[in-house]
Every structure is written in C-alpha cells, then in structure tokens.
Amino acid sequence: MSKTTTTAATSEHARQQVAAAVTLTKADIQKLSVRLRDSDWHAAERLRAWRVFRDTPMPAITDDAWRRTDIRGLRWPELKPGRMQNAAKNGHSAVPARLLRPLVGGEHGGQLVINRGKVVERNLAASLRRKGVIFTDFLTATRQHSDLLRKYLGKSVPASQGKFAAMAACLADQGVFVYVPRGVKAELPLHSVIWADAPAQFSRLVVVAEADSALTFVHELASQTQRQHAVHVGTVEVYAGRNANLQFIEVQSLGQNVWHFAHERSRVQRNGKLDWIFSAIGSRLTKNFSEIDLVENGAWGRMSGFYFAEGDQHLDHDTQQNHHAEHTTSDLLFKGALRDRSRSVWQGMIYVAPGAQKTDGYQANRNLVLSKQARADSIPGLEILADDVRCTHGATIGQLEMEHMFYLMSRGMPEAEARRVLVDGFFDPVMERIPFEGVRERLKRVIAQKMG
Amino acid sequence: MSAVLEIRDLHVSVEGKEILRGVNLVVKQGEVHALMGPNGTGKSTLSNTLMGHPHYVVTSGQVIMDGVDLLELGVDERSRMGLFLAFQYPVAIPGVTVANFLRTAINARLRAVDPKSKGMPIPQFRKLLKERMDTLQMSHDFAGRYLNEGFSGGEKKRAEILQLATLEPTIAIMDETDSGLDIDALRIVADGINKLVGPKLGVLIITHYQRMLNYIKPDKVHIMMGGRIVESGGADLALQLEAQGYEWVRERYAEAAA
After folding, report:
1. Nearest to A299, CA basis, from A267, A266, A272, A332
2. A435, B160, B211, B251: which could form a disulfide with B86 (CB 3.0–4.6 Å)?
3. ipTM beyond 0.90?
C-alpha cells in the first residue's frame, strides 16, 4: 500500500518537473498566431487546443499507454515561440540532396520540401493541379483552403487525444495538406519532406483522398543528429473516401537527438483502401500512436511497419485497428530489428464493434534482437464484440539462429555478411509491401549501415 | 596442382562425449569416395566438423587442405578454400531468394580475393545461374523462391546441388544426400551430382544405404564404425554391405562398435 503511494507521489513529482519545462501561456500562443499570420479560425483553434494542453497532465509511466516509455530523461528545449524562431535562424542547414531524389524513383507528381518550417520547394504537376489536386504546406492551407481543411483537421485526432496531440495543435508551425478530389486518379506519386532540424518543431499532416480517387503519397520526416535534445511533435490525419485507393508511406529518419511524439489516425469509408506504411529509422525516442478506423462496409486497411533501433534508441509504436462495420479487413505487420542497448515496444489492438460481422483482422509483430542488451516488448490485443469474425494475431521475439549463420557461412559469406543477409531476409516481407524501389533501397542501405 | 583433403587422426567430442576416435582419410580432387556406416557412428559428426560447426569440439588431429590446417580457419574461410558441404537437413532462409543467396555467396568469394571487387555483374550471374539450372534440369522460377522455404525434400537436395554447381568447390561432402528421397527424386539428384563429378571435383558421399551408389560409382568405399574408419575398399565393398548388412563389420570390429 505504502509502495503504491510512493510511486504515485514520485510520478506526480515527475509530472510537475516536466510540466514546468513545457509551460505555455495563452500569450505565447497568441504571439505565435501573430507571427505565423494565422487566420482567425486557426488562431481560435490554437487557443482551444492550448486549453486542452494546459489541462492535460504530461504522460507518465503510470499511464497505461506509457508504461514502457519513460520520457523523464528528455531535457525539454525552450518552447517559447519567439525563441524557437530565433533558434531556427541560426545554423540553418540545407536539406540533404539524398532525401529529395531517391524516394519515389524517376518522376514525382509533386514535391514539397520544408526546412525548419520554411517552404523551400513546392511543386505540383500541372495535370494534377488542373484536376483540383491540392498539395501544399499546412500553414498556407490554413489560409488558402480553410473551408476544405477545416472539414478534416482535428476530426480524427482532436486535441483531446492526448497531451502531445494538443501540443501539436496549439504550436503547429508547419505541415502538409494533400487533397485529391472525387474521381481523380493521381498517377504520379507525391512526395514531401520535412527537415526538422530546429530544437522544437510541431507539424500537422492532413491527407484526403475523396471517393473514387487514387493517390500514392510519400512523406519523410528527417533531421541530422545534433548534440542537444530536440523534440518533434506531430499529428497525422488520413481519409480514404468510398472506393478510394490511398497508399501512404511514412519515413521517419530524425536525428538520434530528437524525441518524437505523434498521434496518427486514419478513416476508411465503404470499399475504400488504405495501404499505410511506416518506417522508423531515426529519433532518440519515438512514441507513435497510429490508428485505423474502418467505418463502412468493405473498408480495407493495411498497416506495415519497419523499424531498426540501435544505440540508445527507443521506438514505441502503439497501433489500433478498429472495425466499425461489416466485411471490413485489416492486416498489420510490423517488423523490427534491434541492436546495442536499443529498445522497442509494439502494443497493438484489434477492436471489432458490436455488429461488425464478417470482419477479418490480422496483426503480427516480429522482432529480431541482435544484442544481449537490446530488448523488444510485443503486446498484441484483441477486443471483439461481434460473433462472426476472423481475428488472429502473432508476436515473436527472436535472435539470429546459429544454424542459419552456419549455413550461410558454409557458402563463404563472412560472419558480418551472413548476419546482414539474414536481417535483410527478415525484413523482406515488409519490403515487399513498399511500392517504390527508391524507398526499398533507402531502407536497405539503413540496414547495411546499422549492421555495419 | 590438384586439391587434396587429408584428415589425420581426427578426434571430436560433442558435449564432452568422444564421437570421432581417430579418423584418417584422404580425398583428392577428381576422386569419388563413399563413407558408409550404421546410424550413430559419427558420419555426420565428421561432415559438420570438417565444415567447422561450432557444436563439435576437435580434441586432436588435423585436417589439411592445400597445405593449410582447415581447423585453424573459420567456416567461411573453409568454404572459400574450396570445401563444400551439402547438408543433410538444409535450413530454410526466409526472405532470401535462391538467386540472391547465390549471388551474395559468389560476391563474398570475389571480395575475399579482391576487397575492391564490385562483385559479379548481374547479367553474368543470371547467365551462370540459368546454365546451372538447365544442367540440373531445374525450372528457372526456382531462382526466385525463398531458399529452402516450403521446399520438398527433393527440392532441398537439388538446391544443395545447385549451390555446389554454382560455387564450384574442389572438394564436396554430400551428407546423406539420399535420405528422405523417393526413387525418382534420388535419380534426379544423383544425375545432378554425376554431371558435376570429374577431374575438378573430389566428392565424399556420406550415406547409410548403398542405393545412391547404384547411380554414382565410387572409386573408394570406407566403412565407419564407432568413430573410426574400419574398412576401406573399392566399389564392391558397398555391394557386400548391400548383400550382407553391417553385421559382419560389427562382429569383426566388436571393439570399435562397443
């Protein structure tokens, strides 16, 4: 009994410490609105989010979703909006060329590059623009496409989703808005890059594929590793309308000094398809909530994850597949490798609502632990409130097997090469789901580097 | 200069128990040897030890190949010296295709000779792989399958022979390559081996039964019993075993068999 009290007191103490570091006043938010030339509705939106932020305690390891991810070690950078701007003026680094070219191969339908909140490249093929496709940065969208944006922004991920959702909503200083109108098939992929090199950055993404449309969108969040702690906090909201076909590929390659928090949620309507791919390469710590809502009959969603942690990295993915309607299908496969002292957490849940019959839900998490000090936690979960469904899950944590190593080495491969081949093979089922050679090659290079 | 594998008074233990108790054997490039013997007599221990499986502990003896003591070398180095082991139970390697696997193995060999080597160009590799598959009458789609995953017993053994054909070792050990094969699969696999046998390849066929030797004619036959080679002779020795079984060997070498 006394022990419980102590834990609670300690965690309350920790909360207060963290809270002191991230205090934001109403005036701070108002100043930010002025600086970013917010339209009235967005300024009001920020203040609403700020109130939620103020009233929401900082997550602590006593919270269920945060039991395995302790953020007390984060030395919060200064969050005063004016200071963030000043910091961004100093030591401005160019976005590496490798991020701009390789991801989607030969041709883009459009590319958007944001460096420390500033748009440095924005283009969209004329053919797509003529059809009404919108591909622009978030702040521009709040001014130029406010009616459209407001239909979606904060609907899937409201500020009430959590401390960090509220933080991103009140401090958002960049982001991306993609909109494909009804019936439009965007043949060429769109590609955006957020180069998040400043001490504290907040992004919002809204991706909308209306009914009968098609889109492939690759988004990369990246920065170079620096010495001081930095944070990136983001929300991602994705909509696939009726019969829409949306392929969304996220690459997170933040520097290993960045603490990354994200709330992501998608909504798929009747017979819509969402093929959603996550790859987590970077960050010091990641806590990512991603959720898919299959809201109408026949909706289909696939979530594929790739992560490879090294050093002291801590990557935590919290996924949820919600079947709200009949004949919906979800398929999740997250595969991760860990070396050094790194750690991963995957916690997944398949939820089937009452009456959501004939649904098919699958989730699997496979981990390859490459060192004795690394650790993977894998926690699958099912909550099924309908009786005519097929839901299965699997979770494994394994090591490289001696018999496999012996076999490969007996063909002349040196030990390091044999390990790399086995790790490549381990990831292959996820790689196969990535539609672009450029992205696959990129991830393979990461494997080679991290195995190096 | 032709390659020679020379095993000298080899003693091997597994978990503290001595399994090989002084094996002597010489296999030269261009020769076909058969090593026969009842189960549990140390045949697979020998093949795994030669390849360098960490489970097997050499307590004394030497294995000399081209003047080098193989026992001093790592598994991969032994392979690159020209030694090959066709596994009795090849493991499945999920996510790695036959083609990818072989190309990586070939390139590892090229890089060992020249660290700057960029590896075999892909068109050249494809041509090589197709030629070898044609020689072994294998369908080309084999190359795109994950190595040994979901392979039938016969397919696994053929994949081993394909690797042998592609990596071109000088000495190959075939560990119970005939086990688990029906008569048709056995014929196909044996045909494959026969196509590779010649002056460039020395083969040590390890087998329990004589039936494989109906297809591949050995130059020499050795019988292993109790961790030692107790009899050596020509092809007729295998026929004698077929006709009479191992009982007479056990009686003659009661001490070894004990």
Report:
1. A272
2. B160
3. yes
